[in-house]
Design brief:
By secondary structure, this protein is mainly α. The protein has one domain. About 75% of the residues lie in helices and about 5% in strands. It has a two-stranded antiparallel ribbon. Strand 1 and strand 2 form a beta hairpin. Helix 1 packs across helix 2. The longest helix has about 35 residues. The protein is elongated. About 5% of the residues are buried.
Length: about 90
């Protein structure tokens, strides 16, 4: 039951983020990218700001994936060179 709730919350979060980004893209394409609106948390944010934030988050995720891949590769090389379980 908890797994179902987690999946539903994750799906709601993904759909909410999609709606925010889709709205920001349509507003920027309509020429209203510098307009601000007030969020639920009473913050004024522009549509371009949303797109910049999403781009920065995607870039940070890509860097983290590459760093993790490199770390795993180095760890495999280390285990192959010096033995498997460390004993």
């Amino acid at each position: 039951m908890i797994v179902v709730g987690g999946v539903l919350f994750a799906l709601a979060g993904i759909l909410g983020a999609y709606r925010i980004v889709a709205t920001a893209i349509t507003q920027v394409l309509a020429g209203r990218g510098a307009d601000t609106y007030r969020t639920v948390w009473f913050m004024d944010i522009s549509y371009v700001g949303i797109l910049v934030f999403c781009g920065a988050a995607a870039m940070a995720l890509a860097v983290a994936v590459v760093a993790n891949w490199k770390e795993e590769r180095l760890w495999r090389d280390f285990e192959r060179k010096y033995g498997g379980n460390g004993s």
